[in-house]
Write a structure and sequence with these properties.
It contains five helices and four strands, in the order H-H-H-E-H-E-E-H-E. The chain has 156 residues and is an alpha+beta fold. It has a four-stranded antiparallel beta sheet.
């Protein structure tokens, strides 16, 4: 990806905070015309720096009150592709990370309740042939959750 300049970093920070700002408002804040601002946004999207625009929905509004983290482990490397296929097909999985240590993957899942978590574990994770062990951690509350990345250039 092409290096981002200070204006790109400012624009990315503003868009992460509120992607509904008008091009005129964004342009005023970064010192560009609306058309130049729009061109920068298009370029950043084409380069892959912006991967989409989304509404952040409160999980509770959809009845998804339970947040859990599921560690998954196995010893046969052939398990990975099968697990990833199941995980990618499950709307309950918000994130899936290949991790170091004694586990192979860490899943972040949102579900309505513990009964649905039990069903998810039985029907999605443990149905993958070769999965040997799991450990589930349920979050009681979340002091911080964000999707915002720091847009400040390193060394600033």
């Amino acid at each position: 990806m092409k290096d981002l300049d200070d204006t790109d970093h400012q624009l990315l920070a503003l868009l992460q905070k509120d992607d509904r700002l008008s091009l005129a408002d964004l342009g005023r804040k970064i010192g560009l015309s609306p058309s130049s601002t729009n061109e920068r946004i298009r370029r950043l999207a084409a380069q892959g720096a912006i991967t989409g625009f989304h509404a952040h929905v409160a999980p509770e509004a959809l009845g998804l009150d339970l947040l859990a983290f599921v560690f998954v482990g196995w010893s046969d490397p052939d398990v990975e592709a099968r697990l990833l296929k199941r995980v990618n097909a499950s709307p309950a999985v918000l994130e899936c990370h290949h991790v170091t240590g004694t586990w192979n993957y860490l899943l972040k899942v949102r579900l309505p309740n513990t009964r649905q978590l039990e069903r998810f574990l039985a029907e999605v994770v443990k149905q993958v042939p070769g999965v040997e062990r799991t450990e589930t951690i349920i979050a009681l509350s979340s002091a911080k959750e964000t999707t915002q990345l720091t847009a400040t250039p390193l060394g600033s």
